[in-house]
From TrEMBL:
Keywords: NADP. It comes from the Bacteria. It comes from Streptomyces beijiangensis. The lineage of its organism: Bacteria, Bacillati, Actinomycetota, Actinomycetes, Kitasatosporales. It holds the Pfam family NmrA. Residues 7-244 form the NmrA-like domain. PANTHER family: NITROGEN METABOLITE REPRESSION PROTEIN NMRA FAMILY MEMBER, NMRA LIKE REDOX SENSOR 1-RELATED. The keyword DNA repair does not apply. This is NmrA family NAD(P)-binding protein. The keyword NADP applies. InterPro entries: NAD(P)-bd_dom_sf, NmrA-like, NmrA-like_oxidored.
Length: 308
């Protein structure tokens, strides 16, 4: 079996950004894809070729309907950091996958996870989900990305980059980070879903970009991609959290920001760094360099009428 043979794939989280990227890639490659959703977000167009099962991850029967007949499953958890909820979601997915005969689950933790317990909900709920999914007995491959380049193509970053050459993000300037795009995450997921190589089965991969970049290194990549000077500024994590709360709510924002509060302590400075390309080589993918990703984004959409 290869990724070139059409499969029936359940993609948990396909109405979000990371899961959506996975669903698009799988559909492009001819696979049948469906997802579970309470509602299709009004600000995102319905994805052609994606079928929907109405329901919630907390409902065991609805999760079974999603996974019934599926050969493979890609999973990313919603922006919840309640351990009781996340455990129930993971248990429902794992049990339904086992009962439905799913061959493999690829779980995107959506963050790196420290080797030791931290008390940080963003890490510990994702560690918990991984543990519960492994208990299902279904073959599980785990992807732990660092930070997404796509986070930087936003109303918070775009105007400042175009107008002032300012790139602000809540990571300390000296933190080495293997930035990765949503598309490269999707490529890694597809590879992890279908390859039968022993080097992949049951593994956990700290996937990432071509190389680790400090804040200054990231600014240099943006300068190459944009063709202008760019400087990096470490955004305080509490300020980031406050702004994010206006978009996704205080509870979810606190969960996401927990990652950046943790990184600001300096206790685990290499958590987001690359692995020398080992994961990419094993999965057979080639993530794009940051400057190449930057060069393909429509940054001018953030320009003011005066500067456009």
């Amino acid at each position: 079996m290869t990724e070139h043979t059409p499969q029936r794939c359940a993609v948990v989280g396909a109405t979000g950004f990371q899961g959506g990227a996975v669903a698009r890639l799988l559909i492009e490659r001819g696979h049948r894809v469906r997802t579970l959703t309470r509602r299709i977000p009004a600000d995102r167009p319905q994805l052609a070729g994606l079928s929907y099962v109405s329901g919630d991850l907390g409902d065991r029967d609805e999760v079974r309907r999603l996974l019934e007949g599926a050969t493979h499953a890609s999973v990313v958890m919603p922006l919840s950091y309640d351990p009781v909820l996340i455990e129930s979601y993971a248990r429902n997915i794992g049990e339904a996958a086992r009962e439905s005969g799913v061959l493999r689950i690829v779980y995107n933790a959506n963050t790196r996870v420290p080797a030791h317990p931290t008390g940080v909900a963003a890490f510990e709920t994702r560690r918990l989900a991984e543990s519960v999914l492994r208990e299902s007995g279904v073959d599980l491959v785990v992807l732990r990305p660092p930070v997404y380049l796509d986070n930087l193509f936003s109303p918070w970053n775009g105007p400042a980059l175009i107008e002032d050459g300012l790139l602000a993000y809540p990571l300390p300037t000296a933190t080495e980070t293997a930035w990765i795009s949503h598309r490269d995450l999707a490529e890694a997921t597809a590879a992890a879903l279908f390859t039968e190589a022993d080097e992949v089965v049951g593994r956990t991969f700290d996937i990432g970009g071509e190389r680790s970049l400090t804040g200054e290194g990231l600014a240099a990549e943006f300068a190459l991609g944009l063709g202008r000077s760019v400087r990096y500024e470490a955004l305080p994590a509490d300020l980031f959290e406050k702004g994010l709360a206006q978009v996704i709510g205080a509870a979810a924002a606190a969960g996401v920001a927990g990652i950046y509060h943790y990184m600001a302590t300096g206790d685990d400075p290499h958590l987001m760094a690359g692995d020398g390309g080992e994961a990419a080589r094993t999965l057979g993918i080639t993530p794009r360099a940051a400057d190449a990703w930057v060069a393909t984004q429509p940054w001018q959409m953030w320009a003011t009428p005066e500067s456009a």
